[in-house]
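Reproducibility note. Readers wishing to regenerate the assembly model reported in the main text can use the exact inputs given here. Chain order matters: entities are listed in the order in which they were concatenated for prediction.
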Amino acid sequence: MANFFSEAEFETIFKTHFKELHAYVYSFLKDWDVAEEVVQELFLKLWEKGKLPDFQVSIRSYLYKSAYHNGLNYLRREKVHLQYQTRTAYALKDESDSAANNLHLNEAQNKLSSALNKLPERCRTIFHMSRFEELKYRQIAEQLGISIKTVETQMVKALKVLRGEMKDFLPMIIMLLFKIFK
Amino acid sequence: MKEDIDEDRLIRYILGEANAEEKEQVTLWAEANELNARKLEEFKFILDSGKKMAAQSPADENAQWEKFKLKREQAGATTNVRAINSNVKWLQMAAAAVVLIGGLLAGLYFYAGKTNVKGALILFKTEKDIRTVTLPDGSEIVLNSYSGVSYSSDFLKNRSILLNGEAFFKVKHDASLPFVVRTGSVKIQDIGTAFNVRSKAQQVEVVVESGSISVHENNLSANVNAREKIRINAGDKQLHVEKNNDLLYTYYRSNEFVADNTPLWQVVETLNDAYGAHIAIENNSLRNIPLTVTLKRESLDKVLQVIASTIPEIHMVKNGDNIVLK
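Running the prediction on these inputs yields the following structure tokens for the assembly.
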């Protein structure tokens, strides 16, 4: 058997997961074109390999893992993080004409966005599936072929890392929120 | 009131996964003091921001697939040589246009919400092992080694399976929802039944154990009933349904090779499949000798010894991996 995937099967996999992976890679590269290239590249590699690496590994878990590593490799190779910093600075400036509170919130979100890059691969995949795609623990577990307990442990870990990274920001933000809503 | 709370419970609460009891625990805990309330807000902020930051991909998956196919050709990853004609150029331009328009729309979607999650693909494959897969509708698949099946996670609405290699299907009947197996260009539709499909590069063989199926290839179709089989070769102009009395095809479920007046060449073909062996019959007069024997799935050597002792005319010559029957 030359290729484990039939053409039709591969097409389904591609079309089902392209946008989701595109958004995932975008979340750390902040560039849609580069993210597109990274995702196209990883599908090409998968096609050339013609099969998944291990027995019974879930396709989604494989795709996320490759997206993570290929994305980070790209960051390392092209040093787009410089570009990334100027881009977010610009975006920040752009949106700053609204209320000062909003500025702080945006700033915090930018901080969070770079804090996300500190998460290890599996942790990030699970956080992404939970928050960006709004999947339930059970759905994440099923699709990655892991236990619900593992999903939960990874979510706790993600929160720990993210709170740590944002400890200088959070108290101020929470004060702001209290002011707004109380 | 407990001073601190498990963080996993806190996260479950915010994600809406907590049960009633946990919800109450968290609410009480957060009301107990300001510090707790803030901790809850911090967790909420991080989790909700994650949701707000979720960007919608501006790409179009169909245009991206066309792009991918071009890339794959350029990479020489496919042997399908296709001339770049105006049609493909047009597609390239269309893809570029879609991406461009998509880019413009991206701004609108930016903080808009979650990405589209359509039915995810569920995939099982085997290496050396044999594996039973139970489908969401209760139907069962036994996968022979080096085979694979996939289906969409909305299987209960669309009972469609893609097969590579060989598998046995035991289908839960549902008149309102046909069960379809696709392999290569062949489509098999069940009518409440159990059947075996063996799919190779140039040939698909379906044996029906009980019930009946309909088989479609291009514009040909045929019905196959219990104890019948059909072999479809690439390029066939007609479909032939034959009687099938032997149980050879059950070998990977029963771990036995059951030949019942079965011509030797069929037994050899099954052994080649089962052991990844290269056994050839050189003497044509041997090919159709009927064999009636039940063999345990032991080492290939043992199995061949038994066959040779059952048919005295056979001479076996071993040459490395190749075995020739004369």
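We highlight two features of this model. Residues 75 and 82 of chain A are 10 Å apart (CA to CA). Chain A touches chain B through 64 residues (CB under 8 Å).
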